[in-house]
# Entry
Amino acid sequence: MRPSESMRTQIGTLILATSGIQLANGFFNTLISLRVAIEDFEATMAGLVLSSYFAGFTLAALRCGRVIERVGHIRAYAAFAGLVVAATAAMPLRSGPLPWLLLRAVVGFGCGGLFIATESWLNAKAQPAERGRIFSIYMVGTFLALALGQLLIGPAEIETATPFNAIVAVFAVALVMVSTTRAEPPRLGPAATLPFGHLARAAPVAVAGGALSGLISSSFYALVPAWMQDEGIPRETIAISMLAAVLGGLAFQIPIGRLSDRFDRRIVLAALGLGLAGTAVALVLLPHSLPVVLPAAALLGGFMSTLYPVCVTHAHDRIPTDRVVAVSGQLILMSGLGSVIGPLIGTSFMARFSIDGVFYFMAATALLLAFLAAGRSLTTPPPEHRERLFEILAPQAAPLAHDPLGSSDKPPSLDPAGVAPEKS
# Structure
């Protein structure tokens, strides 16, 4: 059965509103990286400010589901958007490391809540036959919006309050769009739980990969724009370089997804880690000219943006389908923890070794993930690939709450710990 016209309008409104949020988010994250450099915060405090967004985002993954269950999707969406608007508007009024640390954490919490509300809403309202196509449109829109957000850096007067006001306006428009929609909020059912130790035992590569991928990507997106600005690189060039990284991430999704659906995902993950490490080192050794940097940035973005989706899909191969939401939540937690730590470690490396230290740090982390994945593939047989295949996941917009298979799938047989047995 095809969705009604009103349902299509509702879904389209959600996708359009979230694309607007990601447009503002892509601009906002690069803006903060540049403003922290201008404000000349102490290195440790700068790292804390840059990582506080991810701390708030991680907390949202743990707590926002309960808020949605209590007040419903529309009211929760309005509350989360209101938090983002208020915190963003306050940032130019209280410029300092401690106020910005707290306000960026609030922005991260609000954005995490918005994505949870949107994706669980889409999952509940979309017809099963249309769900994959709808989420593909949603994620492609997210990638393109994040990419376009980078282009706003060039003409922006980042030393003033104007960019913050523009971001507030975009979030407010999204709030109005969703809050005025004529929609019956989805009904929430109980979700299956999964003890964290069971996931770590069943899919250790996915758990480690989630943390390490968050550490790598947050270091790049938080620190590279600030370094480029300190080097006197024009903001238009900074915007184009970050745009190349985001578009590279989009370009890699489908081919890497097909590879991971055909081969042992751990081998694919190891190859991605090696590719990322090699590209990071190449960015240090090769000339820093635009014709060299842009293709390298696209490659780096492609490798970074596909690490986490492969980890997620590998974890779902090992865990029963009725626990897919719990698996996603735990991997988001690991990715969030890595994202919090990444800028903290990266700023210390950058203070001592400039940007070369950050890229070598990213390369070493990627190599560690590659060795873990390759070693595990040699010691344990690959799990059987399930019907849930690779998904496109954009930066800062992982599937926090949706279950593309629905709750009607019969789970496979379990061992006493609640974990699907390995194939021998």
Residues 5-183+193-379 form a domain with the Growth Hormone; Chain: A; fold (CATH 1.20.1250.20). Confidence is low (pLDDT under 50) at residues 395-424. The two ends are 41 Å apart (CA to CA).
